Amino acid sequence: MVNASADLHRIAILSVHTSPLHQPGTGDSGGMNVYITETAKRIAARGIEVEIFTRATSLSEPEVSELAPGVLVRHIPAGPFEGLRKEDLPAQLCAVTAGVLRAEAAKNEGFYDLVHSHYWLSGQVGWIAQERWGVPLVHTMHTMARVKNLTLAQGDAPEPAIREIGEEQVVNAADRLVANTHAEAKELIELYHADPNRVRVVHPGVDLEVFIPGNQNSARKDLDLLADAIVLLFVGRIQPLKAPDVLIEAAAQILKRNPELRSRLVVAICGGPSGSGLERPDALVTLATELGVSDVVKFVPPTSRVELVKWFQAASVCVVPSYSESFGLVAIEAQACGTPVIAARVGGLPTAVRDGISGVLVDGHEAATWANQIIEVVTNNELRSKLSAGAISHASHFGWEDTTDKLISVYNEAVASSIVRSKV
Length: 424
Prior knowledge:
By secondary structure, the protein is an alpha/beta fold. Helix content is 41%, strand content 16%. Strands 3-4-2-1-5-6-7-8 form an 8-stranded mixed sheet, sandwiched between helices. Helix 9 links the parallel strand 10 (265-270) and strand 11. Helix 7 crosses helix 10 (305-314) and helix 8 (244-257) crosses helix 13. The radius of gyration is 22 Å and the shape is globular.
């Protein structure tokens, strides 16, 4: 375990567009929220105070909330509380920046030792805070416009030029860039011309005390599922980028070839509409009806971690068909519960899933190909047992404690290099 440096007493974390207090799977809340929450708690446990800044989205939110001992969440008023899309937030960055700087101005000079911004909108605010406070900026992209635009889902809108430009500016300003995987580090260097000397790879993690293997029959009973059901699970925000439609289309293919499976097949879609998915919130319901599989598709609203663990334990496989994924926390969480993952061979998923060991990686998004892979795993008990054991073993290497150790090392490095520059 890495101990806190004497130079690190308090850090500011910026999460402008989504609060770590919000339920993952709703709106713009997802893996990034989990990442920030889990690492912030553990950073504070190492003796470094953490203050997280996010945009206020409700009148009922207090100005300051305690997320955990040593972790405060500050809600900054900027624009209307509700109804503002993530795409509209660039117009509110001045207000957010003013709120962040005002909070620091009320403290003693040198109150924060470092800024860690998450996603490009936060990076824009962090860039100003870095210069104003004279502290290093560490930035994590989570997703990148140029990567998403190279792998767009059919009918999905490309990321705008303002985001690409904003990301370039943050890449140039940051003292250290944290990439989730080596693939992401390569994308930062090749697509954004990031200085390789400032890029560090830190894998996200999973709470290995919460996401654990369990009794599948017991989990299915709790969720009112048949003991012999074939449960295909999707967990995530409902939007074209995440491609839940691919799973529904694959299920239709499976039933076309194996109609006898209809009484046992359950396609569980756990999550809520987000991003461009908000434009057609009922698209998946319509698709399931059109394909004649609405009787096997079950829509589950975003749920608590305890309930989510039950779904992972109950599932035959977890399906992650995303067009782009910087890492894929869902894949690691599923595997920690002993559930094999069938995932797209994109972004960070080849790191999150060991092909043939803890799951299966699929090339492309053709429904027939996905149906083939799903059938092969769920109808072969020996293969599924092998992948289940491999999933547990693979996930065991991705604990949040290790992530936190590496993050603190990056912070210390950024502070040290900042001190050296200031003396030159």
